[in-house]
Amino acid sequence: MKLIILGAPGSGKGTQAKLLAKDLKLKHISTGDLFREEYKKETKLGIEAHKYWGKGNLVPEDITKDLILKNLPKNNYLLDGYPRTIYQAKFLDENFTPDFIIVLDVPYHTLKFRLLRRAEIEGRSDDTEEIIKERFKVYRKQTSPLLKYYKDKIILVDGDRKIEEIEKELIPILKK
Ligand code: ADP
């Protein structure tokens, strides 16, 4: 099974991805986590990519492709944070066509509230008010067109609920 989870920054896709991957025995691949790890290890890729994600912009396609080729297994994974552009979706389709795309639907005011709260708790460096604004802009412009691109494979869920409620709704659908 090849799953993708999509949603705006703050939609809870990372949290939901971890839970679902465990429930369904899939490998959880978060490009955001991988970029942060590479940066922490001070690799060439990590330092170069940080110039972009540190400001809330997307990492250039060639660097992102290197990262994904290095980390994507042939099957049984849940992708979180990839694809984020039509270019990436096409690349994925050429190589590994996904089975389902889960989309977490969350209203803007909840997203903003969650990200600012996360900024206080976790202190992620790209969770400042200004960078959050930029990430929303990038999501609207570059990532939201994917909803149309994938329209036949989308499972749309209300993400403005308790974590366990969302998980409970999704598992039976995905296990079918
Ligand atoms: P968010 O919680 O905002 O969705 P992530 O942790 O998934 O953030 O990703 C953090 C940052 O890493 C993004 O804002 C972006 O700059 C970079 N990034 C992650 N995935 C990709 C990708 N597929 N293409 C380009 N940049 C990416």
Compute the number of strand runs. 5
Strand order of the largest sheet: 2-3-1-4-5
Query: Cα-atom Rg, whole angstroms?
Result: 15 Å
SSE pattern:
EHEHHHEHEHHHEH
Average pLDDT, rounded to a whole number, is: 95
Per DSSP, the total helix count is 9
CATH level 1 class label? Alpha Beta
Q: List each distinct ligand once.
A: adenosine-5'-diphosphate
**CATH architecture classification:** 3-Layer(aba) Sandwich
Extract low-pLDDT stretches: none
How many domains make up the 3D coordinates? 1
CATH third-tier fold name: Rossmann fold
Residue share in helix = 55-70%
Measured by DSSP, the beta-strand proportion falls in 5-15%
Structural class by helix and strand composition: alpha/beta
- What sort of overall outline do the alpha carbons produce when their principal axes are compared? globular
Give me the CATH superfamily. Answer: P-loop containing nucleotide triphosphate hydrolases
User: What summary fits the major beta sheet?
Assistant: 5 strands, parallel
Termini separation (Å)? 12 Å
